[in-house]
Amino acid sequence: MTTDETTASAAKEVTATEAAPQASAIAHALASSERPARPSALSTSVTFGWRALLKIKHVPEQLFDVTVFPVIMTLLFTYLFGGAIAGSVSAYIAYIAPGVLVQSVLFITMYTGTTLRTDIDKGVFDRFRSLPIWRPSPLVGMLLGDAVRFIVASIVTSIVCLAIGWRPAGGVVGVVLGVALLLVFAFSLGWIWTFLSLILRTPGAIMGVASFVLMPLLFGSNIFVDPATMPGWLQAWVNVNPVSDLVTGVRALMNGEQIGSELAITLGWSAALVAVFGSLTMWKYRDPR
Amino acid sequence: MAELAIETTGLVKTYGDTRAVDGIDLAIERGGVHGFLGPNGAGKTTAIRMLATLIRPDAGEARVLGYDIRTQSDEVRSRVALTGQFASVDEDLTGAENLRLIAKLYGFTPKAATRRSAELLEAFGLAEAADRQVKKYSGGMRRRIDIAASIVVTPDLLFLDEPTTGLDPRSRNEVWDIIRAMVAYGTTVMLTTQYLDEADQLADKISVIDNGKIIAEGTATELKASVGSGMLHVRVMHRADRDAAREILLRELQVDVDMPADPQALTASIEDRGRVTRALTELDAAGIGLAQFSLGQPTLDEVFLSLTGKPAEPTKEEAA
After folding, report:
1. B235 lies in a domain?
2. Which of A102, A186, B69, B92 is 20 to 30 A (C-alpha) from B32?
3. ipTM score of the complex?
4. Averaged pLDDT for residues B151-177
């Protein structure tokens, strides 16, 4: 039997079963393809955001960290420190609620890095990188999708805080503005993790380094206590820590106070993070591994 | 359409001390299938990833469909598609969602994206699995959705990186049929494979690659001819007779006679088939019994062996 006969009989056998590819239909599909105009950077980024939402739909477990984690954080820190720091939970909640919100969301940002690393390892990123699209859009879209996760975490944390007696003076508007400022910073911080995920090889390594970066940022800040009680060297760090400015700003917005220079400082840090780590990410993205 | 599909000179990619691709020169014409054949770690994937603009070469020049892969990578990307070695679709999404995602990224309207997705799923026999997550697909289905994703917008050049690795024979035949259908339409396909029979079946021209270098190039027939017009395999009845048998064959065939690992076997690449009959008669006259003998076209296994001095698929050699 010649090779041609072998293939012909194999093809016959294949078409006899129902779910087999059809050569003629494939040829037709190739011929009928259109080539639309190249979409805008915004459009492809939003499409990648849509992908992130589809993933949440199919794997709802990935919302576990943005729902359970903030609840535990809030309850733990409020009841653990409330009495010691402010005398009672009700006195502490106005101080801690905006702080714990910032902490929950910023902590969750590091999953951006591990998710990206998993994507790269699975090969789906090769596909995205081989498409004729604005190059950062898969990453921007991913961070946009993460914004949804951050919003869920913010809502969950706010509800828990409200349930245990938080009554923000800034009202709904103040809380929403505070969360908005937090999201801007979280989006910018995300570029550090995207960069890490392109230079480190495993999700575990990314988690390790990310925790190492996040610990001093989150705990060496004014999230839990007033820095006035801290030793001088620690105060010096807390004062230059961008998270402290962010927390002060979010607190002011939520408590209905006038926000000061923190707004400009936070936005400045955000811009700097995107400029530095966004560029590093895109530089590495051209030639990963 | 005058320019070549792929043209490279001195392409190099280094990882640490390893020169994964060590100076590759290619001139591949448009149309048909070009096979990139080599064992694991030969540099096939690295070469293809450079040509598809996924990684940047450390040295050398390359033009794909006439566009420079360094300075015109966007032009290259809008004309080529890549199906990677591992599933290059999102396993968490359904087949239909994956195709709609790709279509939207190419600029299809949501409605057109849905239409294109349905058309491709139907053509690739995946209509029933359209709303199932890709991670629940079988290996063959996964490979089909992968290829379907590569032709959402018909590419001029398609890179297929080991498209049938790990597939069962039926799925493999299906993928082969898909590749043939695309070639019939006029798409140029660049295929990497470590399966010699796959290159033999599909590729019009083959580049044999080993240790980052191209060690031979030509059609399957040309590569086989380079080993001689055919291979004679002889197995003597008693292993003690092998040396005596080799002497006779050396004398009668006037070519080198190899002694493979099998202690009863002898192989020789033949230039003149007429001498074979005589040699066998001489063996008979010398009272050397043969368990079996065969004369055939050399397989690409043997081509690889003669080119590199080591078998491409050691397990297959042992089995033979």
Report:
1. yes
2. B69
3. 0.82
4. 91
